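Run log // design_07
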């Protein structure tokens, strides 16, 4: 791995208007307090306990990056604007992430079938697990795409590696038993073959193309961006359809109690009108719109004070339609407002795919192999005084 050139990242307070139906006032008030612009907190899968079996070496290289530029302006609370710092570069097809039980960041690398452990302060990168199925068609096109922890055990989401993609591996959830040892606990590809979507729309892969995994009620929820549904998966490997959709391209997930919040990438060409955050529960037959107005939303996470943030992959590039990529340096991090709009707080990200919060810091993973640390999202009482 080698350091790549630093991406120019800007921060601002651009408010993007929408005209969509808003979520009920009670849920909006719960998600985004009006008293202050809240900042980040730890991902709900994180904690302080150390890992039991999987702390090990690998390529113990430090990938500390340079410091991004601070915006000259301030927001309406007169605090310093967020600062973006390049923490890691040179990964190969990084996509999903989570915060582990030791408080470190864990990032999937689909080109190598690997999960990295990243020190959130120093940027030191070490191998947590390797030998998972790798993507068959370049970055962002299958392999190990996301990771989640239940207790001290990691589970990897693998997609796009079965026979309908020209591969020979299982599409599903793999339990990480050791640095290079895995057990398939749920064959999602086989389930999808036996239970195709009932809502008519075109799809290319009968085994689906899963995007994100999130812990839920002792098991998992998994989004399928190709078959347009969310699956519920137990640790025993039982799979069921939690909720299904028309062609809206479900992507990232966040859970708050019984409520599930989901990002929608929207169909090609992934316009701001189809980039959304929606919510639903275990008995919902349809989703309720929370916000819309930024293109190609891929992830969402709660920060401090229950503030919800969403990650935009960027503007669709028609010249890369077969690869389905965004125009470089058009991605953004946005805050979800209580009136159903977004406020962009960081822009100029290069094809970002995953978002986590650790303490007062946000961490953005990009498809181009970078991890950016963002400071200054939260003001008092949730963050340091200016």
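design_07 sequence
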């Amino acid at each position: 791995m080698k350091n790549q050139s630093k991406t120019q990242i800007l921060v601002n307070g651009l408010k993007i208007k929408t005209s969509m139906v808003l979520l009920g006032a009670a849920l909006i008030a719960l998600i985004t307090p009006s008293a202050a612009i809240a900042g980040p907190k730890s991902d709900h899968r994180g904690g302080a306990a150390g890992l039991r079996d999987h702390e090990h070496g690998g390529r113990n290289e430090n990938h500390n990056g340079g410091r991004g530029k601070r915006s000259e302006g301030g927001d309406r609370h007169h605090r310093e604007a967020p600062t973006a710092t390049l923490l890691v570069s040179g990964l190969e097809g990084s996509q999903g992430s989570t915060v582990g039980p030791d408080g470190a960041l864990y990032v999937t690398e689909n080109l190598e079938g690997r999960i990295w452990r990243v020190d959130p302060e120093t940027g030191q990168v070490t191998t947590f697990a390797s030998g998972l199925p790798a993507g068959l068609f370049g970055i962002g096109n299958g392999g190990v795409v996301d990771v989640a922890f239940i207790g001290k055990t990691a589970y990897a989401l693998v997609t796009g590696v079965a026979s309908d993609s020209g591969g020979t591996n299982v599409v599903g959830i793999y339990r990480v038993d050791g640095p290079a040892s895995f057990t398939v606990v749920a064959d999602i590809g086989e389930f999808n073959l036996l239970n195709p979507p009932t809502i008519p729309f075109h799809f290319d892969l009968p085994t689906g193309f899963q995007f994100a995994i999130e812990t839920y009620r002792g098991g998992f929820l998994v989004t399928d961006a190709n078959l347009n549904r969310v699956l519920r998966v137990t640790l025993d490997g039982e799979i069921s359809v939690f909720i299904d959709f028309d062609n809206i391209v479900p992507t990232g997930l966040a859970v708050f109690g019984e409520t599930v919040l989901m990002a929608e990438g929207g169909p090609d060409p992934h316009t701001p009108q189809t980039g959304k955050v929606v919510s639903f529960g275990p008995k919902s037959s349809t989703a309720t719109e929370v916000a819309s107005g930024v293109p190609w939303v891929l992830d969402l996470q709660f920060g401090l004070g229950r503030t919800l943030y969403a990650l935009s992959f960027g503007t669709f590039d028609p010249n890369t339609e077969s690869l389905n990529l965004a125009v470089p340096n058009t991605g953004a991090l946005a805050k979800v407002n209580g009136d159903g709009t977004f406020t962009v707080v960081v822009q100029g990200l290069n094809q970002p795919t995953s978002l986590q919060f650790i303490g007062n810091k946000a961490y953005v993973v990009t498809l181009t192999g970078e991890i950016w640390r963002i400071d200054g999202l939260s003001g008092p009482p949730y963050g340091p005084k200016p």
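The two ends are 37 Å apart (CA to CA).
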